[in-house]
Amino acid sequence: MNEHPTEASRLKRELERLQRQLTIFYEISNAMLTTLNLDEILYIILTGITSHAGIGLNRAMLFLVNRAKNTLEGVMGIGPGSGEEARRIWQFIETSRMDLNDLIAQYKHSRRVADSKLNQLVKNFEISISPENGILAKAVLDGTLKHIRPPESEHYRNDPLIKELGSEEFVVVPLKAHDRIVGVILADNIFSGHPITDEDIKMLTMFANQAGLAIENSLLYQQALLRAHTDSLTQLWNHGYFQHKLDELLKEHQEKQHPLSLLLIDIDDFKRYNDEHGHQKGDEILKNIAKILKDHCRNIDLPCRYGGEEFALILPDTGKSEALNIAERLRKTVEEAGLPTLSIGVATFPDDATTKEELIELADAALYRAKRLGKNQVQNPDSQ
């Protein structure tokens, strides 16, 4: 009996392999076409690489090029934090019969990725793009895929990221869009110990080209949105975006039962200042106060130009006492800077209001009470 496979069986296996690759590529490409949200696209990309129904590698991490700073910055990592967690996840996926589309759909319903140790490690990573800064920087600079195996991996023992990851074998794939590198993916099989095969690398290469274009399109879309939602003079969010985000954030905070505060801010005697000094000087005042507003914000806060000489500051996860302290520090900073003073009205959900309209109305009423009581002060609904 002939123990060697026949040519027909070999061709059948090859066709099955190609069909599987094309199916994976088709499903992931289609998923990326459903959104322009960058985080969703990154999640789809990394899920396609790590899913059992995709390429099936253990961990995948994505880093994007910041051209303004000439840096490479970590943005997302997907994968278990230990062998035990890996086995638990794989068992759950197998018993629940989740396919690639099911896994992608988890993005909107799970905080597991955002809160994972791997994701936090990746998001804290930032290096300047220069040859001495390790394997990722080299991949960006020369634009070529790197498949690192022992004993070559010994050369990268001092690379801070590789040292932290503990990878013996890994692959780094540049993400290209229109002949330029927009980022890189690093993937490994640290928990299963399976070698990264030529088939894996072919799939990764084919997939990376599509992913690079999807990321580039998302970044361009975000830039366009940013321009559309930004006030051109102050570079704060504009009134339309303020209304949209306040509505969105209030719904989130209602679900979480967390407080949210709103500051409405008016520059005192701004019309008189404009009349005396001219509109160009008035524009400078608006820009200076906008800068102070941005400088005093946390990452989660949304500073907006409400209209004319009015500003708004949305403070997520912020109760009334903290909001009043923030408002007072802001008022004092502007006063000490020698700029026209501010009157500020503060209202808080759910203490003062339960709807967007009520919150704005009460903050506005508190603002005008501050005006009537002599300006350059902070008021809230409780101070009536």
Write the layout of secondary structure elements.
Elements: H1 7-33, H2 38-50, E1 59-66, E2 71-78, H3 83-96, H4 100-105, H5 112-115, H6 117-123, E3 126-128, H7 135-142, E4 146-148, H8 160-165, E5 170-177, E6 180-188, H9 198-229, H10 239-256, E7 260-267, H11 270-277, H12 279-295, E8 302-307, E9 310-316, H13 320-336, E10 342-349, H14 356-372, E11 378-379
Parallel strand pairs: 10-11
Antiparallel strand pairs: 1-2, 1-6, 2-3, 4-5, 5-6, 7-9, 7-10, 8-9
Helix pairs in contact: 1-2, 1-9, 2-9, 11-12
Overview of this structure, please?
- The chain has about 375 residues and is of the alpha+beta class.
- The protein folds into 2 domains: about 220 residues, 2-Layer Sandwich (Beta-Lactamase); about 140 residues, Alpha-Beta Plaits (2-Layer Sandwich), CATH 3.30.70.
- Helices cover about 50% and strands about 20% of the residues.
- Strands 3-2-1-6-5-4 form a 6-stranded antiparallel sheet. A 5-stranded mixed sheet has the order 8-9-7-10-11, sandwiched between helices.
- Helix 1 packs antiparallel against helix 2 and helix 2 runs antiparallel to helix 9.
- The radius of gyration is 27 Å and the shape is elongated.
- The N and C termini lie far apart (about 95 Å).
- About 35% of the residues are buried.
